[in-house]
Amino acid sequence: MKNIPNILSAFRISLVPFFIWQMIRGNTLTAGLILLVSSVTDFFDGMLARRFNWVSDLGKLLDPIADKLTQTAVSLILIITLREYWYLFAFMIFKDTVILVLGGILLKRGMNFKGSRFLGKASTFFFYAGMLIIIFFPGLPEGILLAILIIAALLALISGILYIPEYFEYKRETEKAC
Question: Containing domain of residue 65, as a range?
Answer without folding.
Answer: 4-177
